[in-house]
């Protein structure tokens, strides 16, 4: 098993008392060219960068990410195209690929892992693969140089949580609330309790996503967790206001993250 490419960044953040800013962008949205520019711009402020592989049946995603996926697919974006986009963008922060299982199976698991290794991808999140759902595939990822990052829901029982996190790598992605992705005006009132439950089950960093859409929410989450993931709100702003608008939004989140203890 190779050393985690994500671990050094988390260690540096912990040493400096900072929370990770983790933007999510759908590969190929709103167009392949604009997507590349958006990724490079986001990389300037991100500690970890999530790149979503567009999929035709994104059941875990809300309207914004679904729309971005369909638009990216309309422009011909694929998993192969996503890997090429990442390569051409020459991104500095570690990249985590966010995908459904089907595109990787269609591409070929071994072929994907080889390509991801060559690109020095830091991690992989498979939204529709529960822990233990495909032991052979999970083991292949865990034994590669790519961290298998687990999604955890706030309702996950303690016994199930220990099972899910037994093979987790990189960091734990805690879903801030139930339901599909999407920006929300308020956070789950017992989010802090959920974060503590995960911390008791693992020594990995805990990042919170699903629904974070304002600097105030980012600051609040930053006081509880090790990382703040922002997706739908960022994708929505990118589609509406372009790369410059997305960059301003991420700048406001980074400032909120840096000011979280003040």
Short summary:
With 262 residues, this protein is of the alpha/beta class.
Keywords:
262 residues; alpha/beta; TIM Barrel; 8 strands; 48% helix; globular
Task: Explain what the structure shows.
The chain is an alpha/beta fold. It has one domain (7-258): Aldolase class I (TIM Barrel), CATH 3.20.20. Helices cover 48% and strands 15% of the residues. The chain has eleven helices and eight strands. The protein has helices at 7-16, 32-43, 63-74, 79-89, 101-107, 109-118, 135-142, 158-165, 191-201, 215-224, 232-258, and strands at 20-26, 49-52, 95-99, 123-126, 147-152, 172-175, 206-209, 227-230. An eight-stranded parallel β-barrel has the order 1-2-3-4-5-6-7-8, surrounded by eight helices. Strand 7 (206-209), helix 10 (215-224) and strand 8 form a beta-alpha-beta unit. Helix 2 packs parallel to helix 11 (232-258) and helix 10 (215-224) crosses helix 11. The longest helix is centred in the C-terminal third of the chain and has 27 residues, at 232-258. The chain starts with 6 loop residues before the first helix and ends with a helix. Mean pLDDT is 91; it is low at 179-186.
């Amino acid at each position: 098993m190779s050393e985690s490419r994500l671990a050094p960044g988390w260690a540096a953040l912990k040493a400096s008392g900072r929370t990770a800013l983790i933007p999510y962008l759908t590969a190929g949205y709103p167009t392949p060219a604009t997507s590349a520019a958006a990724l490079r711009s986001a990389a300037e402020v991100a500690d970890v960068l999530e790149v979503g592989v567009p999929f035709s049946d994104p059941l875990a995603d809300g309207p914004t990410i679904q729309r971005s996926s369909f638009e990216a697919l309309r422009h011909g974006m694929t998993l192969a195209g996503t890997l090429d986009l990442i390569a051409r963008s020459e991104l500095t922060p570690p990249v985590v690929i966010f995908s459904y299982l089907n595109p990787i199976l269609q591409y070929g698991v071994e072929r994907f892992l080889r390509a991801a290794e060559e690109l020095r991808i830091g991690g992989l999140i498979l939204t529709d693969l529960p822990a233990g759902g495909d032991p052979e595939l999970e083991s292949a990822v865990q034994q590669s140089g790519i961290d298998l990052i687990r999604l955890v829901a706030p309702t996950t029982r303690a016994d199930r949580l220990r099972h899910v996190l037994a093979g987790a790598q990189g960091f734990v992605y805690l879903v801030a609330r139930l339901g599909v992705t999407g920006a929300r005006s308020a956070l789950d009132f017992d989010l802090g309790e959920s974060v503590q439950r995960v911390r008791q089950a693992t020594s990995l960093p805990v990042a919170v996503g699903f629904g974070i859409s304002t600097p105030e929410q980012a600051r609040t989450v930053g006081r509880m967790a090790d990382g703040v993931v922002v997706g739908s709100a960022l994708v929505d702003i990118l589609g509406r206001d372009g790369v410059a608008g997305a960059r301003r939004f991420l700048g406001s989140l980074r400032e909120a993250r840096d000011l979280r203890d003040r």
